[in-house]
Design a protein that fits this description.
By secondary structure, this protein is of the alpha/beta class. The protein has a single domain, classed as Hexapeptide repeat proteins (UDP N-Acetylglucosamine Acyltransferase, domain 1). Helices cover 20% and strands 31% of the residues. It is built from 3 helices and 19 strands. The strands form 4 sheets. It has a 7-stranded mixed beta sheet with strand order 2-5-8-13-16-18-19, with no helix packed on it. It has a 5-stranded parallel beta sheet with strand order 3-6-9-14-17. The chain has a 4-stranded parallel beta sheet with strand order 4-7-12-15, with no helix packed on it. The chain is globular, with a radius of gyration of 16 Å. The relative contact order is 0.13.
Length: 176
């Protein structure tokens, strides 16, 4: 799975690890905003390390431990990260409400999909990026440093650094 190879998501170990992440997301999502220590403990347990990120509830992910966050990352409400493989989000990056980042993918062939096997492609979001609300970042995408992604965009291919990109499919609108 981590190498981008096909895998069986119903594997008992993977199912248990997703259940663990769901439990930790629930703890994070139900922790009082007035109890930052509880929220911090939930984040450390979910991500496997301490972070200087702010994640507003609710937040959802598949595993948690495949998410690497830089300093001063902000997730607004209702963000989802399907982290079947590495998802790296750089320093000082902002994610608007309802941003979804998908490292998980499925075969294009109906016959292959019927086998139940899945795959993953890593996602990298550079430093100082702003992703507008409701945007979707697809598997295998890299968003360059300082880029801005317009709200509601569907990012299906790499975005170079220092640009404003928007649309479905997302494409460069102008250099910043």
């Amino acid at each position: 799975m981590l190498a981008g190879l096909m895998y069986d998501a119903s594997d008992p170990q993977l199912s248990a690890e997703r259940l663990r992440a769901q439990t930790l997301c629930h703890a994070l999502n139900t922790a009082s905003p007035n109890d930052p220590a509880s929220r911090a403990r939930s984040l450390v347990a979910l991500l496997g390390r301490g972070v200087s990120a702010r994640i507003d509830a609710p937040f959802f992910c598949d595993y948690g431990y495949n998410i690497e966050l830089g300093d001063n990352v902000y997730f607004n409400v209702n963000c989802v990260v399907l982290d079947v493989c590495r998802v790296r989000i750089g320093h000082n990056t902002l994610l608007g409400p309802g941003v979804h980042i998908y490292a998980a993918t499925h075969p294009m062939s109906p016959a292959e999909r019927a086998t139940g096997l899945e795959a993953g492609k890593p996602v990298t979001v550079g430093d100082d990026v702003w992703i507008g609300g409701g945007a979707i970042v697809c598997p295998g995408v890299t968003i360059g440093k300082g880029a801005v992604i317009g709200a509601g965009s569907v990012v299906t291919r790499d975005v170079p650094p220092g640009v404003f990109a928007a649309g479905n499919p997302c494409r460069v609108v102008r250099v910043l």
